[in-house]
Amino acid sequence: QLQLVESGGGLVQPGGSLRLSCAASGFTLDYYGIGWFRQAPGKEREGVSCISVSDSSSYYADSVKGRFTISRDNAKNTVYLQMDSLKPEDTGVYYCAVPTARTSAKAICITPGGMDYWGKGTLVTVSS
Asked: Interior CA angle at 48 toward 61 and 46, to 5°?
C-alpha cells in the first residue's frame, strides 16, 4: 500500500528553522515527482516547493524562494524540506504529495488537485 508520512513539524520562533521529512512506503519515490504543499487556517492549499522526476528540477513559490530547500534521498526513500528564516505567515499544515503523471516541478506545485497520493500532514507554527 502506497503511503506518505510527514514529520518534523512543530513550534518555532520567527527566524528559526525546521526540516520536514516525507517518508514513502509501498513504492519507490525516485520514480516520482513530489511536492510540498501547505494550508493555513482559512486559506486554500498551496504548493510550496516541488521536484520533478524527469530532470530533478525544483520549483519554489515566490513566498519561500531563498528560504526553503527541497531535496530527496533516494536511498532512504525520503524527501525533505529545509525551512530557514521562518516567518509567521509560514504557519500551516504541511503536506507532501505525489502525482502519478510525469510532469514538471512547477506543474506539480500549481495544481494540487492533480496529486494522486497525499500524506496526512504535519503542523508548523511560527510564533514568538
From this structure: 100
Q: Grid coordinates representing 79? A: 524527501
Work out whether the CA dihedral 73, 75, 114, 125 comes out positive or negative.
Answer: negative
Average predicted confidence (pLDDT) for the chain:
94
Instruction: Give strand pairing partners of 18.
Output: 83
Q: What is the 3-state secondary structure (H, E, C) of 28-93?
A: CHHHCCEEEEEECCCCCCEEEEEECCCCCCEEECCCCCCCEEEEEECCCCEEEEEECCCCHHHCEE
- Which grid coordinates are listed for 76? 532512504
pLDDT of residue 74: 87
DSSP code at position 95: E
CA distance 95 to 81: 11
Give the residue with greater pLDDT, 103 vs 87.
87
